[in-house]
Amino acid sequence: MTRLQITLTALFFSTTLLAFDEVEVTPLFPNGWEAVNVRDDAMVMQSNNQPLFGDGSLLFATDTVTNGQDKADFQLLWQQSASVIDFPGRTLGNISDLNYAWYRDAASTTIAHFTPVFRLTFYDDNNTPTDLTDDVSGVLVWEGVYNGYSDPVEDSWELVDMMADNFWAFVSFNGQNTGTGVIQNYNVSLDDWINQSPQGQPGDPQINLSADTLIIGVNVGVGSGWGNSFLGYVDAVRVGFGEEDDTLFNFEVCPVFIANDNPDVIFDDSFECFKRF
Fold first, then answer.
1. pTM of the model
2. Does 71 fall in a domain?
3. How many domains in the chain?
4. Mean pLDDT along residues 124-153
């Protein structure tokens, strides 16, 4: 672990008072996370190239051959049921902690302000669960360039606290027939989305979120349309909904070693990938 990693670790754990539950996410045990929206000129995978905590992190890489094909995301959707809300307490108004760490490698040749983005997936039924005509869903997107990272430091981990930061919105479904796509307003906080119904440019979608808007997942990713190449990493994704529901997702290559006390089992598929602390 480098001095920077030690400093980040100390900062992260001292400021959060160990209030969260840590969940390791590995290729063998993804805990619901999966690669999505991976196009031809991009990739995402767990890697030991730049570990932050433990032995790994998420690696994102693009090498643009065809414009728009440089995209890859890694996503967790905790809403799985089609008939009931799995986590009714996970709402926009209940968010208490939002953090993640990202790293832009100096080998990147895309525009300097591009770094891995963070997304909250939302769903709002306007308190009419049997009426789909007023439902709305999409993502709230944190991007560094709209939060003071117009020229981020390269070859260095950046740990971000997003609670007071700006999030723009992409509307993927709108039963109210007020449009889908990007709401072009990049100076809007989560509190603003709850209380002020921010407007974009003429012709943009219009939505009304509230403290009761459900957060049904989280996503980190790169692209698309960045051009040239990007190499970077993500780790330590933390989403909290109060003291009793606060999780940090730690992306690793190998799971923590668990002693095997079965003498009949000598080898299995994961034999070469265990670590012990």
1. 0.89
2. yes
3. 1
4. 92
